[in-house]
Amino acid sequence: MLVSFCVIAYNEEKAIKSLFSDIKAQDYPHEKMEVILVNAMSTDKTRELMEKFAEENKDFRRVCVLDNQKKIQAAGWNVAIKASAGDIIMRIDAHTMIPNDFVSKNVECIIGGEDVSGGPRPNIAEDDTPWRHTLLLAESSMFGSSIAPYRKSHRKTYVKSIFHGAYRREVFDKAGMFDERLGRTEDNEMHYRIRKAGYRICYNPEIVSYQNIRNSWGEMLKQKYGNGYWIGLTLGICFRCFSFYHFVPLLFVLALIGTGVLAAFGFIFPIVTLGTVYILINLLMSILAIKGQKKYWQYFLLPVIFSSLHIAYGFGTLVGIIKMPFWRKRGKKNDDKITSLEE
C-alpha cells in the first residue's frame, strides 16, 4: 500500500532535523512512501531544510514541499491531504520522534481491517536536566496532562481520538476535510465526524510515537491556556467533540471563583474545604509522579506546576466560552461575505 507521510511545520528548524532522520530510518519500503512536507510560512530555515530533504532522498516515491498560506494547522493538513496520493494518510507533528517501525506497524493495523490507527504518545525532553525532567514529569502525569484512560492503556481498544493517526483515504473522502475555523481542536472535531461517518479509531499500544515537551514552564502554561481556549471556542461548533475530562480544569477554576466570592462575604468553609482537598490530591499525585525517579530538589515545585497548569487550562476554557458567541458571529459574517462573492 502507498503511504502518504504528512508533516506540517512552522519554525521547526531544530526539531525537524531529528524527524527527518526518523523518516529515513523507516523499515517500510521507501518506494511505497511519499513524504509530503507543508511549511506554514516559517520565518526560520524550516522550508530550506524541507527542500534539502527532498533533494537528498530520492529513494521515496516522491518528496513534496508545499506552503500553507493560512498558517493554521487545520489548513496545513488539508493542503497535505489534497496533495497526497496514498492509500493511507499519516499525520505527524514536526516536534515528534518515531521508531523505525512506526509506518509498518500502522500499515499492518490498517491492512488488518482498521479505518484509523494510532497509539500512545509518551512525552520526552530534549535535555536531561533536573528542571526539564521536572517539567517532563508534570506533562507525563495524568494529573498534569489528561485523565483520559486510553493514553496509558496496554491493550488494543477503540477510542474517540488519537495522536499521530494513520487514516484510510476513504475516511476523508466520506467524513470531509479539517475545519479551518479551528485552531488546536481540529483533530477532536475531525475525529468526531469520522466516528459519526461510521468509522472506528483503533488505539494500538504497539504503535508508539514520542512528543517533545515545551522547553520552559512559561511555554507549557501558554500551551495549556491555548488548548483550553480553543476548547471553549469549539463548543460553539461541536460540543460533542469533547469528553468530561476536558472540562475538569474549568470546573476547578469555577469552583475557585465561586468559593472565593463566598469567602469575600464571610463564608470561608467552602474555599477552605476545596483548597484542602485539592492540596492533598496534588501532593499525592506529585509523590506518585516522582516515585522511582532520581531525586532532584526541583521536584518540590511539582505541586505548584500542577496547579498552574490546571488554572491556565481552565481559565483558557472560560475565556474561550465567553468569547465563543462573538467568534461564531464573526465567522458567520466571513462565510456570508465569501458566499456573496461566489454568487
Q: Structural class of the helix and strand makeup? A: alpha/beta
Rounded average pLDDT:
90
Number of domains: 2
Query: Main sheet, how many strands, which sense, barrel?
Result: 8 strands, mixed
Give the % helix.
40-55%
Helix count equals 11
Based on the coordinates given, report the CATH architecture of the largest domain: Alpha-Beta Complex
Beta-strand percentage range = 5-15%
> What is the CATH level 1 assignment of the largest domain?
Alpha Beta
Q: Might you state the CATH topology name of the largest domain?
A: Spore Coat Polysaccharide Biosynthesis Protein SpsA, Chain A
CATH homologous superfamily name of the largest domain?
Answer: Spore Coat Polysaccharide Biosynthesis Protein SpsA, Chain A
| Shape summary | globular
Q: Topology of this structure?
A:
Layout: E1 3-9, H1 15-24, E2 33-39, H2 46-56, E3 62-67, H3 73-83, E4 88-93, E5 96-97, H4 102-111, E6 116-118, E7 123-124, H5 130-140, E8 157-159, E9 166-168, H6 169-175, H7 186-196, E10 201-203, E11 210-212, H8 217-238, H9 248-264, H10 269-290, H11 302-342
Parallel strand pairs: 1-2, 1-4, 2-3, 6-10, 7-11
Antiparallel strand pairs: 4-9, 5-11, 6-9, 8-10
Quick recap:
By secondary structure, the protein is an alpha/beta fold. It has helices spanning 15-24, 46-56, 73-83, 102-111, 130-140, 169-175, 186-196, 217-238, 248-264, 269-290, 302-342; strands spanning 3-9, 33-39, 62-67, 88-93, 96-97, 116-118, 123-124, 157-159, 166-168, 201-203, 210-212.
